[in-house]
Design goal:
With 187 residues, this protein is an all-alpha fold. It has one domain: Hypothetical protein, domain 2 (Endonuclease III, domain 1), CATH 1.10.340.30. Helix content is 53%, strand content 2%. It contains nine helices and two strands. Strands 1-2 form a two-stranded parallel sheet. α2 packs across α9. 33% of the residues are buried. InterPro entries: Adenine_glyco, DNA-3mA_glycosylase, DNA_glycosylase, Tag. This is DNA-3-methyladenine glycosylase I. It holds the Pfam family Adenine_glyco.
Length: 187
């Protein structure tokens, strides 16, 4: 008998692997936090599986999500990204990755780390929800509204409340594994 997983990932090996190994696990690594932030902003309006399938291409195209490098991307690098068929070629989203890298660094300077900033919204403790079905899970919450508003105030782009909530789920600020999922109590 197989493991019981959240319904959204079942049936696709890539989705299941992401669900089993990353989704909802409290994350504190600066580079990985930035990676998920970029990937979530590129996901806006698309399905997450589309992004997962292109994730390795994004890593190569965006210098392994080195935000120090990305913050200094010039017009030539932007054009190179926009010509890259392996990623989502959206000019506004490419520009947002650069702007968000610059603002990510500013937050690090102000708070000591982006980790301290983002986890400060929950006093460092994940919110553990108790959904019976993944369809019960909201697309956004008052907390994602608050974080979105703060990020926008700091100059971040493509960080609407729904994108922020997906980011919160990905990095484990919220545990939205369903109660019957084997990962629910593990994370």
């Amino acid at each position: 008998m197989g493991k019981t997983r959240c319904g959204w990932c079942v049936g696709d090996p890539l989705y299941e692997s992401y669900h089993d190994n990353e989704w909802g696990v409290p994350l504190h690594d600066e580079q990985l936090l930035f990676e998920f932030l970029v990937l979530e902003t590129f996901q806006a309006g698309l399905s997450w599986i589309t992004i997962l399938r292109k994730r390795d291409n994004f890593r190569v195209a965006f210098d392994n999500f080195d935000y120090q490098l990305i913050a200094r991307y010039d017009d030539n690098k932007k054009e190179e990204l926009l010509q890259n068929p392996g990623i989502i070629r959206n000019k506004l989203k490419v520009n947002s990755a650069i702007t968000n890298a610059q603002n990510f660094i500013k937050i690090q300077e102000e708070f000591g780390s982006f980790d301290a900033y983002i986890w400060g919204f929950v006093d460092g403790k994940p919110i553990k929800n108790a959904w019976k079905d993944h369809k019960e899970c909201p697309a956004n919450t008052p907390l994602s509204d608050k974080i979105s508003k703060d990020l926008k105030k700091r100059g971040f782009k493509f960080v609407g409340s729904t994108v922020v909530y997906a980011f919160m789920q990905a990095i484990g600020i919220v545990n939205d594994h369903t109660v019957d999922c084997y990962r629910y109590n593990e994370v």
